[in-house]
Amino acid sequence: MDFLTVIQLLDSTVRLATPLLLACLAGLFSERAGIFDIGLEGKMLAAAFFSAAVAALTGSVWIGLLAGIGASVALSLLHGLASITFRGNQLISGVAINFLAAGLTVLIAQDWFSQGGRTPSLMGGARFEPITLPFADALADVPVVGPVYAELISGHSVLVYLAFLTVPVTWWVLFRTRFGLRLRAVGENPAAVDTAGVSVIGLRYAAVVICGVLCGIAGAYLSTALQAGFVKDMSAGRGFIALAALIFAKWRPWHALYATLLFGLFGALETRQDVITAVIGIKVQGQVLGALPYVMTVIILAGFVGKAIPPRAGGEPYVKER
Amino acid sequence: MTLMQKFLGASAALALSAGAALADPALIFDLGGKFDKSFNEAAFNGAQRWAEETGGTFLEIELQSEAQREQALRRFAESGANPVITTGFAFADPVNAVAGDYPDTKFVNIDGWLPEVPPNVQLIGFQEHQGSYLVGMMAAMASETGTVGFIGGMDIPLIRHFGCGYAQGVKAVNPDATVIANMTGTTPAAWNDPVKGSELTKAQISQGADVVYAAAGGTGVGVLQTAADEDILSIGVDSNQNHLHPGKVLTSMLKRVDVAVYETMKSGGDVETGGFTVLGLAEDGVGYAMDDNNASLVTDEMKAAVEEAREKIISGELEVVAYYANDSCPALDF
Questions:
Q1: How far is A208 from chain B (nearest CA, A)?
Q2: Fewest C-beta in 10 Å: which of A211, A244, B256, B299?
Q3: Which residues on A lie below 8 Å from B154 (Cβ)?
Q4: Which residues span the domain enclosing A142?
């Protein structure tokens, strides 16, 4: 296995980890505020569709991105309405959102474009093109550093850099601001926050809206940066892997980055089985790698490697008077 | 209450129209969806052609989940539809289970296989390995690096069958060529994961592949897109996909599901049942697509070689080994 193969593998890892990372951080905000969200998948899918559809209609990927975020936030608010305002079961609401998104995207796509539940192929300005960072071409010939910078760090779409930037921002917001402190408190002990005179409902809505925005970017990344259009069910379970990563990361931002990169690496290795064979000398079936994120999450949940303790008030609607 | 009445009225009207549609053929699309630009869409096109030519109507349903298979079959059989056509290998068992209860209805399945075929069931199969062999030859001739790729959808014997014929075609032209084969996954989600299709394509390109053949349903959209973006050639499957990226898709391996559906609907209730129909190169059941979009990519030399192989396969002089023969492939290790 040569150096370039490693770079290529890591490059693929970054691409595959980006949607997971965004969805994972989305779930982090929501769950830290005590709202479980298994509707990440559905929100991503809705955003993937609306960003591709609007980008196809307007020819501008940025308007598409806004539309994707809008669709995802709308579903988030629906989840908020059901589980915060009406105190419904958060899991059921999340499942409903997944079904709703799966059906609605195909239905609307068929109505708008009559191409069998997909959008037309996006071209030119309707797509996020890879960005070449400054000096990437000049440095490409420098040994070791050159390929790492030119191939691995440069040449991704702007959403990738945005996703990685979101990690420190999330950490800062959650652990260094008053809003973050309150948000975490609402997930642990909403009654205490309420006693302090801060609106539990308001904070939880804020959390689900942030979750919607991040899921929206994740969905737009799938359909307008990685792909050139929407195909039915194209999120293909990434929302659930992001949830697994969230548990694996024990609801912490930096760990979410590591977990999603690890899961991304599994995905990348799945496409390069020859590399695994070359390194360990045994032929490993790709399915094993596909299942690894789930297997590792189960191991973490079972308490073999440290303990994954979710926010204490997670999943419970807040009732003022008992 | 008025809303309820509307619903009741609507369902009554539906029931009436279903009754009126006596002996119309019915078509059930598999989970890939009616407009998959590929397999199911070909079936729909065949039915559409029949409807336009004869002025007839047909019933249709797109499945949304595994659980609906038997239910849909029974509903159509009970509403008097004949024949009931299903697409996809996964329908073979439900058809087998249901057929006995409706002896007067004829069931036709495309791609399925059963050890014993009930008297009112007909299974239509395609010699996909023959068509794949031809596009494999074209891939090997178009490749400059001597490495070509195959990306399958869900890892099932049928898709390995495609890959195996392809690899044999590649090796027939260039015995030293490398064929890289990847499957997208092991669940039905593998038919609709273009993102993974793209990553697999990029991985194959980094291993030197410059022609990639996708037999992966909706996942193939991602494969063809990435191949076009990275400026290598791709090969489409089932329907003619050359138009998706003009000048970038070398050809498409045609599987004339449309012809099979069209012929079945044309025979109507008199369709022959109780056995297998096999459509290969000789019956024009499989082939490769040529049109304006790929005319500049396919050289006369390629065309001549492929046509010669086609004649030889039809005459029996050249035998393409089927993956099913002994569940393994002489030219490719999965």
A1: 27
A2: B299
A3: none
A4: 11-129+138-235
